[in-house]
Amino acid sequence: MVPANWADTAPIGSGNVQMDYAGRFKAALDQIKSEGRYRVFADLKRRRGEFPSATRFTEKLSHPITVWCSNDYLGMGQHPAVLAAMHEAIDVAGAGSGGTRNISGTTRYHVELEQEIAGLHGKQAALLFTSAYVANDATLSTIQKLIPGLVIFSDEKNHASMIEGIRRGGGEKRIFRHNDVADLEAKLAEYPIETPKLIAFESVYSMDGHIAPIAAICDLAKTYGAMTYLDEVHAVGLYGPHGGGIAERDGVMDRLDIINGTLAKGYGVMGGYIAASRDICDAIRSFAAGFIFTTSVAPAVAAGALASIRYLKTSQIERARHQERARTLKAMLKAARIPVMDNPSHIVPILVGDPVHCKAVTDTLLDRYGIYAQPINYPTVPRGTERIRLTPSPQHTDAQMQALVNALSELWAACPLSHGQTVRLAAE
């Protein structure tokens, strides 16, 4: 019979040495708390039709807040067309998918969604995953197993999911300086032309808002015989005539071998995918454990994502308004001498540079002003570059923007950090 206090007393090995399991967990938590990196979930309830307004719940009460850090960039999670499609799918097909894609979990909703995604990116096929993280991890790790000797060239600011997929693949990797085409070429040139290569990078880097030089990277891929793998997670739905991302905007979709995207940000639902040739998608489908052994997304989720993609393929209103709101907020912050980190995308990061101070500012915004903006700290960003990351949506009003700028101005006046001009980080 296992004693109630087993976690504190269970021995390691056959000797008398005992491990303080509970103490190890507590020490790990105490460490990140002492560094100001401990994260607290905000308990929120979004109110249908009122985005970006929400209700925040604490132990003692609930009160209204304005959300300024949602990745539902266009508010499509509230769009009537999306909600109607999800309601209809529940009424028709029920709740869950019933299994993995191989075992009863492929419904007509999944098939139509993959066809729509393939068309969006101008590819032969697409493959749906439960998240873009899983799509990156599963695809990048599996490609290395399918192509022995593959060398992956990875941007130093790639997302954790890409890093994990590359690591799990176990092959050789080379890290090139962020958005630095010259550094990438120097590293590519070190290998014979016959060496299999893959360049993995993002279109919009979500913490700095930088945009990759996709065409220049594709030029190098052609010269040095490399495949290209582009993560468009923070761009799909938001850029391009049909929402196909930065690659569509720049007219280079046909030059990319694999495009990764999400259904959880610009499209407002959940799930991730890759779009590529028919053979690439079929190979990943057939060999990637992260795809094979995972229950497929619910039919209602697939239906909602499908409706969102179809709507944003034709509507330009949301994209235009989104870009205008981002430009307007950046201008207001600069005018107030708040240190916004300049970039060409919709991301609005405000540099703080200290984890404790960053959390203090965001806690005060939430508790005193009813403004929710999450602190961003290590390991999401390098130490010393802690920041507040704002994501204005088409639904944020001028009055809400002014309230945010006023609150930040009051906090900056009261804090030891000096007002700064626009902050530029390297390699924008």
> How many helical stretches?
15
- What percent of the residues sit in helical stretches (DSSP H or I)? 40-55%
How do the strands of the widest beta sheet line up side by side? 4-10-9-8-7-5-6
The chain-level structural class is: alpha/beta
User: From N to C, what is the helix and strand string?
Assistant: HHEEEHHEHEHEHEHEHEEHHHHEHEEEH
Overview of the structural elements:
By secondary structure, this protein is α/β, with parallel strands linked by helices. It is 41% helix and 15% strand. It has a 7-stranded mixed β-sheet, sandwiched between helices. Helix 7 packs parallel to helix 8 and helix 14 crosses helix 15. The termini are far apart. The C terminus is likely disordered.
Characteristics of this structure?
14 strands; 428 residues; single chain; globular; 7-stranded mixed beta sheet; 4-stranded mixed beta sheet; alpha/beta; 15% strand
Can you give me a brief rundown of this structure?
This protein is of the alpha/beta class and 428 residues long. It has helices spanning 6-9, 21-34, 80-93, 108-121, 132-146, 160-169, 181-188, 214-224, 246-249, 278-287, 289-292, 299-314, 317-335, 355-369, 398-414; strands spanning 43-46, 53-57, 62-67, 125-129, 151-155, 172-176, 197-202, 226-231, 258-262, 272-276, 348-351, 371-372, 375-376, 387-390.
